[in-house]
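Support request from a user on the community tier.

User writes: "When I paste my structure tokens into the form, the page sometimes reloads and wipes my input. The last time it worked, I copied everything first. Here is what I submitted, just in case something in the input itself triggers the reload:"
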């Protein structure tokens, strides 16, 4: 149906520009035939194909470019989602370049090794493919839209975090946990009473993460391009994404989904190479929380429908926040009005297998009044970010020839290779496992966190002190989670 509608739009646009429609029937072969075609981006190549096949124009360059765009009834070209993957495909396949709607072409502005044209109508595409005129003015870098977007990006400068570490009073222990999580890409959960600073710490994380590499920026930008969320900026997305869906978000919104072949990435994929912040995680639907198990462990998500199956990357840092009980004040003297059963049921909304996949558990208590009134300036995010960047550089060198970039992504074989334990460390882990009853998954996650702590200290080997600190962040693994 989508392709039939495309043909109607195309023929109307051709007639509006003075082209004739050849014959009474037009057959268009979109190979391969067994792959279902969807979307309006085929309008432009169909129109060019009709013009070339009917001999109305000589288009010798038509086979050297990838063309995508939606046609208006007047022959204008409208933006389409997924322009960046099309441009990357053209580069990999050895085409001369791509011809895209002007707004969509901004996404591919960094592919300067090939020709990226941004057009406003079908007439511009014909002009380029004829090869008789100088079309330099249509290259995306020479368009007014690109210059405007580029000036706006330079004027904006680097994105600033909503909250700076220096603005958060107290909570040194939680800040330390956030620093470790950011340095190694670990998942973390913050539990505490209302007003203890959980949301502020989570938002401050955006200001301490290192900038994305070009490869990370390309993958993240492609996800946003497919989802149609690029917001007409020039080049790649350079700021690490920080996604914070509401706790009432549906399964399709968080994991991804859609009808038919129109499958779109969800929040777990939009947070790729960044942070997925789930505030009031205990209020989220049980089905959505359990569906997060796969992406958190595998760092990708596979969405299957009757006629389609798509896998999106989903390597993100999970930052969850929750109150300790329904009233929110458990552990704060006699302020809690909940029964023991209510408290237990509230925290156990996050199942054991899900909690097992979270590396750091932080309990945050409200800051005393005297500390708030007489607060001293705390360490700024810039200082914390410098330490994290140093640790990330050490990990980059460690995993230079492997398919991971941070400690949290290590497989069991990579843990064995990069995290050897001395005899003293093995004894420490034996004692911890016997005393705390950690699972095998928790055992390996403790080692990953210890590796990150060692990177922050600049040491080559993991020491018993690193293991003890890493294990101290897993208090929710105890048999009675409220035995604090």
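"...and here is what came back when it finally went through:"
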């Amino acid at each position: 149906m989508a392709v039939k509608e495309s043909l109607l739009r195309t023929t109307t646009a051709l007639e509006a520009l003075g082209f004739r429609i050849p014959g009474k029937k037009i057959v268009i072969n979109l190979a391969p035939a067994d792959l279902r075609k969807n979307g309006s981006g085929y309008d432009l190549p169909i129109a060019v194909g009709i013009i070339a096949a009917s001999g109305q124009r000589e288009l010798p360059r038509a086979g050297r470019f990838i063309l995508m765009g939606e046609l208006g009834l007047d022959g204008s070209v409208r933006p389409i989602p997924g322009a960046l993957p099309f441009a990357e495909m053209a580069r990999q396949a050895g085409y001369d370049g791509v011809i895209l709607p002007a707004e969509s072409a901004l996404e591919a502005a960094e592919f300067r090794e090939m020709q990226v044209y941004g057009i406003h109508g079908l007439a511009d595409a014909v002009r380029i493919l004829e090869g008789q005129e100088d079309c330099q003015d249509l290259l995306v870098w020479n368009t007014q839209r690109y210059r405007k977007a580029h000036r706006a990006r330079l004027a904006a400068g680097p994105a600033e975090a909503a909250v700076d570490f220096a603005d958060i009073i107290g909570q040194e222990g939680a800040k330390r946990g956030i620093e470790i999580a950011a340095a190694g890409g670990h998942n973390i959960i913050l539990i505490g009473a209302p007003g203890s600073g959980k949301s502020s710490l989570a938002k401050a994380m955006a200001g301490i993460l290192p900038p994305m590499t070009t490869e990370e920026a390309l993958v993240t930008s492609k996800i946003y391009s497919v989802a149609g969320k690029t917001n007409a900026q020039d080049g790649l997305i350079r700021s690490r994404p920080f996604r914070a869906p509401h706790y009432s978000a549906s399964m399709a919104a968080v994991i991804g989904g859609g009808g038919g072949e129109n499958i779109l990435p969800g929040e777990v994929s939009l947070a790729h190479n960044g942070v997925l912040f789930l505030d009031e995680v205990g209020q989220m639907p049980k089905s959505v929380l359990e569906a997060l198990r796969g992406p958190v462990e595998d760092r990708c998500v596979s969405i299957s429908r009757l006629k389609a199956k798509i896998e999106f990357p989903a390597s993100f840092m999970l930052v969850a926040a929750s109150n300790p009980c329904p009233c929110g004040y458990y552990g704060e003297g006699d302020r809690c009005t909940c029964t023991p059963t209510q408290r237990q049921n509230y925290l156990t909304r996050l199942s054991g297998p899900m909690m097992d996949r979270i590396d750091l558990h932080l309990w945050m208590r409200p800051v005393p009044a005297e500390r708030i009134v007489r607060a001293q300036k705390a360490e700024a995010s810039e200082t914390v970010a410098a330490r994290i960047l140093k640790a990330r550089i050490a990990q980059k060198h460690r995993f230079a020839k492997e398919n991971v970039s941070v400690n949290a992504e290590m497989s069991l074989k990579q843990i064995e290779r990069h995290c050897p334990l001395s005899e003293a460390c093995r004894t420490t882990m034996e004692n911890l496992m016997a005393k705390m009853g950690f699972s095998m998954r928790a055992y390996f996650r403790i080692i990953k966190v210890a590796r990150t702590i060692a990177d922050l200290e600049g040491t080559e080997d993991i020491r018993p002190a690193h293991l003890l600190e890493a294990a101290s962040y897993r208090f929710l693994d105890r048999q009675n989670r409220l035995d604090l």
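Agent notes: The reload is a front-end session timeout and is unrelated to the input. The longest strand covers residues 317-322. The two ends are 60 Å apart (CA to CA). Escalated to web team.
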